[in-house]
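Replying to the earlier thread about multi-chain prediction with a worked example.

Input:
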Amino acid sequence: MLEVITSYDFLFNVFGGFTHFTWQAGVMIAIGIVLIYLGVAKDYEPLLLVPIGFGCILANLPLTNLIHVPREGFVFHDGVRDILNNAGLLPLKEGVQLVDQGILDVLYNAGIGNELFPCLLFIGIGAMTDFGPLLQNPRIMLLGGAGQFGIFLTLLLALLLGYDKMEAICIAIIGACDGPTSIYITSMFNPALLGPISVAAYSYMSLVPIIQPPVMKLCTSKKERAMVMSYDMLKPVNQTTKTLFPVVVTIVTLLIAPSGAPLMGTLMLGNFLRECGAVGRLVKSAENEIASVTTLFLGLTVGSTMNGDVFLTTKTLGIFALGFIAICADTAFGVFGGKLMNLFSKVKINPLIGASGISAFPMSARVVHKVGNEANPQSYLLMHAMGTNTAGQIGSVLTASVMIAVITALNAMGVDLSL
Amino acid sequence: MTEMSDMNFGWLLTIVGGGLTMLSLVVLIIVVNVLKSFQKQP
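Result:
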């Protein structure tokens, strides 16, 4: 018996947690702990960073087999072993393993692999969003589009730096400052980058109050920042307009970019539930239970894709650097969009509000208000910036939808995007 | 399968993607203004 206990194979497998532990796993567990710390102690997007951090720790502990990452080369045993065996298809081709699903594999296949979780989250976000300030001054919707041009700049930069086409799209979309959209696009085009992209997206979203003010100040003069925007330009809207708005957005945007239906459709469904006033229970469920459960599962599963082999690469560093550029560029493009509007418009706006034309709601609007108020204590930009911020939500989903449409078209035309 | 260079792909996405995004927003502004014009004046 002593022989068995002291044998190398016995010790290697019985104490597998220790013997299979790698330095990459150690670094990833440390990163998981940092994410949890940022969420819990610093209040940086805790609803996402805490499950992401915990998922990262779970997935990097050796031999837990909760999830298989990267997912290429695995066929999940879900009662198919006998079928494959009877059909004479076992063993599988070399390099492909038949494995049992871990619980996080189940969650991944159920909600990330098929892009369901981001869409469920969008129903909740739609139910929580009030487009009232935007409808009161609809022309600022253009700033929600201007704010997305940082995405395209980052796309070009990533391609110049040698990232392949699908990687570049996933990196650029971080600039939307929209977690679910980033996850949706990455699951669709390059699931291997899900970990770094989502962590970069949510980290930068939580750092909006630190990242945006210096860029805003760099792009504006003190006089521009101090400009007071009258509340007279906000024309009241009635409930019928607010109720019809999500229906109109759905029809218009999906006629232009049908492939964006899962994103725009669910966002506007949530908002319609809110505004129609007839389904209070569904609204409550969407903004509480559905959003909370989905956030938990989404964060946990995304965190569990942060495998050391995939995450600890120079590519990840590049993703973080380009994501940062994307958000700075979005802010700058938004501000310059505001200045451009002033050239063609009689009623001037404070260009600062363009900076909130991103999807980080309502944090970006608050930051704009604060910067404007610092320049001129008489300036109250909050409601104007809230309008631009909701426009940024529509703009980011729209940009993602259009990108999907273009890529779908190129695929249909037989263009090989892997080259 | 046809090939497309990286930068061609980037510019195509930028021009078509940016253009369609802005076009959609302009259409939305017009539709919202039409909807608002039907509102009863207080």
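The first helix of chain B runs from residue 6 to 37.

Feel free to reuse this layout for your own posts.
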